[in-house]
Amino acid sequence: MINTIIFDLDETLLDRTNSLIHFCQWQAKQLNLKGINRERFTKRFIELDANGSVWKDQVYAQLKQEFVISQTVDELLFIYIEQFQNFCIANPEVNETIIKLYQHGYQLGLISNGKNPFQENNFKHLQLSPYFSSIIVSEAVQLRKPDPAIFLLACQQLNVQPEQCLFIGDNEIVDVQGAQQAGMTAVWYNPQKHLSSTTIQHSIQSMSEIFHVITL
User: Fold this and answer.
1) Domain range holding 179?
2) Using CB atoms within 10 A as the burial measure, which of 43, 66, 137, 173 is most buried?
3) Pairing label, strands 185-189, 107-112
4) Per-residue pLDDT tens for 24-33?
5) Is 41 in the same domain as 135?
6) pLDDT category of residue 200 using cuts at 50, 70 and 90
7) What are the DSSP calls for 83-118, one per residue?
8) Confidence check: pLDDT of 117 > 60
């Protein structure tokens, strides 16, 4: 019986795309970029970021070549690390879903690939951490999804077996296949339905649909 729900962070709980757009627009303004340059800065940042797969020292190194920016890469990176959390917003229905799951007695956990404490700070800014009994960031534990070991570590922290857990994430391989290999039930969060899969048992387009997968 499922009694524990574990979530991915970026593009699952966190609307990373829109959070990043807001941050880039703010930073472009701080850099005194005008008009079209401000919009180009935002667009190029998002392109170079490649959905979070490229760390921002490389992103800023390229942006410095393309735009007239006096700050060093280290200075720009420091601003990103310190300020991005202030622009973090949750995906639709996330807050209501988390509160409802918590009120119905489900244990909640988080597993995020990324740097620490950067990812943990981003999550805390969503003001959901009081509902979570386990928060794991890959850098802090030297494990990364889809390695089953990171999913099993969450089970250990939550004192549950994998078959008692449901994992929700937006990446078919890293999240869904990783969780399945660890013995968990996996749900693919695919709000745009931009991809399809014949190998995934459970798929949702909105966070509230999770209640169609579990029984309260």
Assistant:
1) 4-15+91-213
2) 137
3) unpaired
4) 999 999 999 9
5) no
6) confident
7) HGGGG--BPTTHHHHHHHHHHTT-EEEEEE-S-TTH
8) yes
User: CA 137 to CA 53: how far, in whole Å?
Assistant: 15
Q: What angle do CA 14, 119, 100 make, to 5 degrees?
A: 45
| Same domain for 110 and 38 | no
Q: Are the C-beta atoms of 193 and 32 separated by less than 8 Å?
A: no
CB 169 within 8 A of CB 7: yes
The verdict on 114 and 196 lying in the same domain is yes
In the chain, the number of structural domains is 2
Q: Does one domain contain both 200 and 143? A: yes
Instruction: For residues 209 and 115, state if they share a domain.
Output: yes
- Distance, in Å, from the CA atom of 174 to the CA atom of 190, rounded to the nearest integer, reads 14
Report if pTM > 0.85: yes
| Cis amide bond preceding 130, omega within 30 | no
CB 5 within 8 A of CB 164: no
CB atoms within 10 A of CB 62: 15
The 10s digit of each residue's pLDDT in 61-109 is: 999 999 989 999 999 999 999 999 999 999 999 999 999 999 999 999 9
Q: Indicate which CATH number applies to the domain containing 159.
A: 3.40.50.1000
Last residue of one domain, picked from the residues 55, 87, 119: 87
